[in-house]
Design a protein that fits this description.
This protein is mostly helical. It has 2 domains: 60 residues; 98 residues, no CATH class. 62% of the residues lie in helices and 0% in strands. The protein has 7 helices and no strands. Helix 5 runs antiparallel to helix 6 and helix 5 packs parallel to helix 7. The longest helix has 21 residues. The protein is globular and about 55 Å long.
């Protein structure tokens, strides 16, 4: 038997996006990821397919070395809209922190990633679409995470480091 991937029709993309969203809501991110890859095979520039693929990958984060942080980051950085690049990058950093906390990583080692999430959300807020407070909601969640865990040893101010520096891997 010849086992090759088949391409969906472009007319079926909207329904495939809805299915990917459904599988994400059912906590079946592998299925959502597969559907997103089919969407992007049919339309490599499909905005929702690209965004959902990144989210489906972050849904699979376990805090272990096999997590595909770099792949999700590349996907989110490829989004055309500056607000979405910032917002979804913030989600990536936030989800990375949460996964590593669940895996038992010491909170103080994750502070640079949480600070990066806060920076991303703060920058996204500056250019957010009208009536869209998603960046503020995510900012607040990160602050509450910091406040609820004294092991973060957060001073209440974002530490400064150069733009070329990145949080620890």
């Amino acid at each position: 038997m010849d086992l090759k991937l088949k391409t969906i029709s472009t007319s079926a993309i909207d329904e495939a996006v809805a299915k990917a969203e459904l599988y994400r809501s059912l906590n079946e991110p592998e299925e959502a990821e597969s559907i997103c890859r089919d969407i992007l095979a049919a339309d490599p520039n499909h905005k929702s397919g690209r965004r959902l693929l990144g989210l489906a990958i972050t849904d699979q984060f376990s805090g272990e070395g096999a997590d595909r942080y770099a792949e999700a980051e590349k996907i989110f950085q490829s989004l055309a809209d500056p607000y979405e690049r910032l917002y979804y990058s913030g989600l990536l950093y936030e989800r990375r922190v949460k996964a590593q906390l669940r895996a038992g990583q010491p909170p103080h080692t994750l502070l640079p990633w949480l600070e990066q999430a806060l920076r991303s959300f703060a920058e996204a807020e500056k250019i957010q679409p009208p009536n869209n407070n998603d960046a503020i909601l995510r900012w607040n969640r990160c602050v509450r995470l910091l406040q609820s865990n004294p092991d973060f040893e957060w001073t209440g101010e974002l530490s400064s480091f150069e733009a070329h520096d990145s949080p620890p891997a």
